[in-house]
Amino acid sequence: MPPELTVVGSINVDLVAKVERLPQPGETVGGASFQRIPGGKGANQAVAAARLGADVRFVGRVGADTFALDALEAEGVDVTAVTRDDGESGVALIFVDAQGENVIVVAPGANARLEPQPASGAVLCQLEIPDEVVLAAAADAAFFCLNAAPARPIDLEPDLLVVNRYEHKTVSRGKLVALTLGAEGAVLLEDGREVARAVPPRVDAVDGTAAGDAFTACLVVSHLEGRGWDEALTRACAAGALAASRFGAQPSLPTTAEVDEILAA
Fold first, then answer.
1. Which of 97, 204, 213, 230 is catalytic?
2. 220: number of CA atoms within 13 Å, CB side?
3. 213 is catalytic
């Protein structure tokens, strides 16, 4: 049986401009290419988990633009718990340079209007939704993972906290803490003590937009599959590297077979 996971989170339309270099303040940079891509950290992680073999239920909110919601359905994610209204859907404005570095500005839209509702079983959240929604989702979860991005203080100790080194300065409480270190890989901490470490396979970075989402989803799915934390962390680093080697958010997210293949190389 595939692992079951409820993802409570954001769903956005990503407006992505690929440029040779990122502009300085007050500067206009021309020659960009443009794409409209389904995104949002919650939706990205739901798609990633589904591609990695999980049975995924998504809880979120969209406005009149259902482009990103349609993409979730196409991936086999259960969207019956998604609320719809007539307002604006969430939008992310993303600039990506030739080295894969990005700058992102998010207008939350319908994500800010998501209302609290209970969740059960294994639950994954991020912080592109209101705190009260995250707290309600955590209350009855058998296993709760929080990817604290974008980071802000929240009165919660999840079973698993996923943060990068900058987010860790703001949010540090978790029974287990997965600390991502970019090209250096990731470490798993328990009570501040390192219990696992992994490094990613070498790839050519193209776009880091959803690398953290791929990492988080793969770590959670691997754990729910019964893998040990060492193996789960190794697989998560591989998933993140694969996502960084491809352009776009959801189009970059790998499958189980692709993670297996790069780890076997």
1. 213
2. 35
3. yes
